[in-house]
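Hey, does this match?
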Amino acid sequence: METILAHAHTLMYTILALMPSRYQRDNLEAMLGLFLAADGKPLPHYSKSKSESALSRFLNTYKWPTRKLIRHLRQQAIEQVNSHCPLGRKAFLQVIIDLTTLEKCGQFKAFKNLITVYNGKRGLHIVVLYLVVGQWRIPWNFRVWRGKGTASPSQIALRMVRHLPKDLTKRFRVKILADTAFGTKDFINNLRKLKYHAVIGIGCNRKLVNGYPVKLLHRRGQQVRLVGLDFPVTLS
């Protein structure tokens, strides 16, 4: 626990040092203080060192050095994940892929190209990729699905998987965990080409090569062949 706290403090001070001005640094420090206090009061109006309006302007107006922050946080995450890697047989790195919808009502001119309808829900549809190893669960990447005529959620997810850092994919055995939204034949075939393990949800109406739907199967551990795949998969 002490090691985690020490790491958190080091990371916090490094992020503060990336702020381009003292004013932004003070505002970010106030925001981080609200979150790290962990007393259930993280909103700006609970701050005792900065006004609510000052923190609002900081979040809405000032340009953060976003790329520097992302690069630094990712490097820190890789170091922490690698520190968990045990000697001997390679450990598994779980890569969780999720499609999250932030529902929106009304008109949002600034987001008109981002708000779409998917499965009857209107809002921002975000493909999120998490890394999990040991005690670490890290949000690593995300992309917004931009609607019909653009890359599908499964295509977006595949791009993010292909861009996983080699520092991790060489050190760990990669296991992809994804729900039915990503169970397309192209996604599964490409994961096999990458030689990654995968546990993926598929629709109950998916067809076997013998013409029967998956929903008629009941025995766990059974190997079956799905239409569109040239290799058997195991039913869970």
Residues 1-64 form one domain. The chain has a mean pLDDT of 85. The chain is about 35% helix and 20% strand.
